[in-house]
């Protein structure tokens, strides 16, 4: 499985997105449900935001966390001290588990980076027992992430490359209303429900917002890293201007919406 998400180091990801996925994970678990004694699969675990939230939310029997990136697998493994949790490298589109292995399979902020998201949903359904739950959540890049849209709209005003970035970023897979729900239904899940979850991303200052992107983390960081020196300076200044919005540099808070979907394996 290839992925459109690039990561250089776990610490950079934590500052870019991990700290916010930790806020989203409990809301996602509440939506999908969880029970004591269950075997749960975390698909695309990253640094473990959902993995460790699952361990705290219930007395689950086993949590298996997988990710395609060795950087993430190493980071989650290093953090883990819970014997119920195992972390391994695997492909979301070719899960190395038998049919009906798990009670639940969840994917937190993953499907929009999987080129064949439908295949990943099909694999999650396959490895979950009849009556079990498959759940996923992705950011609404088009209409629900004003902090990130601030950056992509700014670079779109600067160049054609920026406009192409915005088009890619805003229309990744599974992000449009009812898109995940349709995919879940198409792959045989029943009692499918889609909803919106909201958290706030709170930044202390412009550097807190911009540093992980400027360091090349994630799809927006990949764009910035490819700029030449002149365009980089121009972009840094333009995004700072957008962040500050005519006021002194300092804290800013953005409401961020994610689409969440769950379904039952018949």
UniProtKB/TrEMBL annotation:
GO terms (BP aspect): methylation
A Pfam family matched in the record: Methyltransf_11
GO molecular function term, any single one: S-adenosylmethionine-dependent methyltransferase activity
Positions of the Methyltransferase type domain: 41-134
Stored InterPro entries: Methyltransf_11, SAM-dependent_MTases_sf
Keywords: Methyltransferase, Transferase
Protein name: Methyltransferase family protein
């Amino acid at each position: 499985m290839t992925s459109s998400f690039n990561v250089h180091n776990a610490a950079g990801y934590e500052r870019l997105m991990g700290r916010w996925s930790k806020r989203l994970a409990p809301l996602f678990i509440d939506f999908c449900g969880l029970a004591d004694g269950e075997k749960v699969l975390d698909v695309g675990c990253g640094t473990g935001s959902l993995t460790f939230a699952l361990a705290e939310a219930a007395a689950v029997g086993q949590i298996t966390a997988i990710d395609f990136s060795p950087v993430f697998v190493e980071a989650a493994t290093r953090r883990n001290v819970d014997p119920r949790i195992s972390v391994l490298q695997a492909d979301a589109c070719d899960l190395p588990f038998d049919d009906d292995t798990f009670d639940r399979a969840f994917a937190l902020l993953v499907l929009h980076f999987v080129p064949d998201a439908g295949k990943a949903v099909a694999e999650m359904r396959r490895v979950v027992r009849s009556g079990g739950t498959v759940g996923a959540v992705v950011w609404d890049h088009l209409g629900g992430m004003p902090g990130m849209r601030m950056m992509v709209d700014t670079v779109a005003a600067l160049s054609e490359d920026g406009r192409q970035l915005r088009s890619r970023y805003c229309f990744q897979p599974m992000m449009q209303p009812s898109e995940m729900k349709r995919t879940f239904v198409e792959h045989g899940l029943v009692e499918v429900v889609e909803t919106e979850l909201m958290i706030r991303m709170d930044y202390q200052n412009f550097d807190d917002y911009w540093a992980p992107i400027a360091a090349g983390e994630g799809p927006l960081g990949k764009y910035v890293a490819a700029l030449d020196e002149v365009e980089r300076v121009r972009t840094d200044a333009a995004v700072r201007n957008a962040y500050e919005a005519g006021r002194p540099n300092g804290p800013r808070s953005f409401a961020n919406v994610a689409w969440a979907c769950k379904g039952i394996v018949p």
